[in-house]
Amino acid sequence: MSTRVSGWALTISMTAFFAAPSFAADDATTRKDLMAVIALQGLPCGEVVSVKTQGDNDHIATCKDGNRYHVFLNSTGRVVVEKQ
Amino acid sequence: MRAARISGLFVLLMAGCGGVKPAPPGESPQTGAAQAGPATMAPVVPVTPPRPPAPVVATQGPIAAVAPAERSATSPAPAPAGKSTAKAGAPAAKAAPPASAAQPPRKDIVAQAAGTQKSAPPLDLTSLETRLKDTDAIGVMTKIALKNQVDDLLDQFRAFYAGKVKTTLAELRRAYDLLVLKVLSLLQDSDPSLAAAIVASREAIWGILSDPAKFATI
Fold first, then answer.
1. Closest residue of B to A29, CA-based?
2. CB-CB neighbours of B58 under 10 Å
3. A49 vs chain B: nearest CA distance in angstroms?
4. A29-78 tens-digit pLDDT
5. Domain range spanning residue A60?
6. Minimal Cα–Cα distance from A83 to chain B, Å?
7. What's the total number of domains in chain A?
8. How large is the ipTM?
9. Quick check: A43 contacting B, CB < 8 Å?
C-alpha cells in the first residue's frame, strides 16, 4: 500500500516538475509574441509582463509601463490591438 | 690554314646554332626578328606554343555554365595568330600579342563567371513565404499581424497603380523598407539565415513591386 502511494506521489511530483517549465515556456513565448504584435502596431509597451488568455487568439497583455492591451484576431482575420 | 678556316667556320656555325636553340623557350623570337628572311619562318613555329593556354582556358571553362562566353573569348585568340602568320612581318611583336590577348580574356571570363554567380539573385518568393510561415522566430499572432501589414501595403500599391491614391513611389518605398525592417528585426536574432535571405531578395522584391507589369502578375 505504501509503495503504491509513494509511486503515485512520485508520478504526480514528476509531472508537476516537468509541466511547470513547459507552461512557463509557453507563457514566455506568448508574451514575446504579444510584445512583437504591440510593437508592430507602433504602440508603447516596452515589455509584456503578464498575459491573460481569454480564448483562442484572444489575450489581455499587461506591459511593464502599465499599459494594458486587448490583442485578438477579429472575424476578418486581422490582428487587432485595443488599448484598455 | 684550311683546317683553321674550316674549324673557324664550324665554330661560327655552332655559335649560330647555339644562338637559335635557346629561342623556343623564351621570347627569343626577337633574336629571330633581327635575322633576315628565314627567321620569319622560325618565329611562326613558336607562335603555336602560346596556343596551349587557349585549351587550358577551354578546360577551365566547363567549371561554370558560361561555356558560350568562353568560346567567344577563346575564338578571337586564334584569329590574331592567323593574322600574324599572314602578315609575317615582325614575328616577335606578333608572338607576344596572342599571349597577352589570351590572358586578359581569362580574367574577364572569371570575372564574368563570378559576376553571373553573384548577380543571380536568389529570389524565390514561394520559398521565402514557406520559410516565413515555418520559422519559430516569429509567433503566430505576429505572423498574422505581419501578413495584415503586407496585405495593406499590396493594397496601397494596387491603389497607386489604379490611380486611386495620390501617393508617390518614394512613399511606398519608405513603407516597404519599414515593413522589411520590422521583419528583419524579428528574425535577425533567432533566424539569421532567413533574415539574410530576405536581405538578399529585398531589391528583387522591390523590383517586382515597383514595376506595374510585374506587379500585375503577383
1. B139
2. 13
3. 17
4. 999 999 999 999 999 998 999 999 999 899 999 999 999 999 999 999 99
5. 2-83
6. 16
7. 1
8. 0.74
9. no
- Taking an 8 Å cut-off on Cβ atoms, the answer to whether A40 and B144 are in contact is no
- For every residue of B99-111, DSSP letters joined together read HHHHHHHHHHHHH
Q: pLDDT tens digit string along B56-90?
A: 443 333 333 333 334 443 444 443 443 444 344 44
Tell me the count of A-B CB pairs closer than 8 A: 41
Task: Determine the 3-state secondary structure of B161 from DSSP.
Answer: helix
Q: Are A10 and A24 in contact (CB under 8 A)?
A: no
Joined together, the cell numbers standing for residue A15 give: 509531472
Give alpha helix (H) positions in chain B. Answer: 2-20, 29-34, 37-47, 53-60, 67-74, 78-87, 91-119, 125-134, 140-162, 169-187, 192-209, 212-216
Inter-chain touch B146–A40, beta carbons under 8 Å: yes
CB contact under 8 A, B142 and A33: yes
User: Other CB atoms closer than 10 Å to residue B143's CB: what's the count?
Assistant: 19
Residue recorded with cell 613558336: B46
List the single best residue of B136, B142, B153, B182 to mutate versus A (max A Cβ within 10 A).
B142
Those residues whose C-beta lies under 8 Å from the C-beta of residue B77, and which sit 6 or more positions away, are B51, B54, B98, B101, B102, B105
Question: Per-residue DSSP letters for B81-105?
Answer: HHHHHHH-S-HHHHHHHHHHHHHHH
**521565402: which residue's cell?**
B128
CA distance A14 to chain B (A): 28
Where in chain B are the domains? Answer: 2-119, 125-216
- Compute the CA torsion angle B135, B141, B144, B145 (nearest 10 deg): -120
Substitution target in A33, A35, A56 with the highest count of B β-carbons within 10 Å is: A33
